[in-house]
Design brief:
The protein is an alpha+beta fold and 89 residues long. The chain has one domain. The chain is built from 3 helices and 3 strands; from the N terminus they run αβααββ. The protein has a 3-stranded mixed β-sheet, covered by helices on one side. α1 packs across α3. The longest helix has 12 residues.
């Protein structure tokens, strides 16, 4: 159910990915249970927990394309942030 909602939102926003040269940044929301000090220290730091980056990329590509075989090069990163977002550039 959450994936369907995510896929609908991605399509609604009209996100585009080129067949090469695209960079994707996944900003992963910090847990609300973290202290303010920890949130400040972790903001923008690499996100090394699940979900795995390959799963995030696959979910995004599957939401955008029926067949994503034409995508031959992209880069992706995931970082901690105050709120979740996806930036494509």
């Amino acid at each position: 159910m959450r994936y369907r909602s995510f896929a609908d939102e991605v399509r609604l926003r009209g996100l585009k990915i080129n067949e090469s040269g695209t960079s994707i940044r996944f900003d992963m929301p910090m847990p609300k249970s973290w202290s303010q000090d920890k949130r400040l220290s972790m903001d923008g730091q690499p996100h090394k927990a699940t979900p795995d980056i390959d799963n995030l990329v696959k979910a995004l590509l599957d939401a955008l394309f029926v067949d994503d075989s034409h995508i031959w090069q992209l880069s992706a990163e995931k970082r901690w942030a105050g709120s979740g977002s996806i930036t494509i550039y």
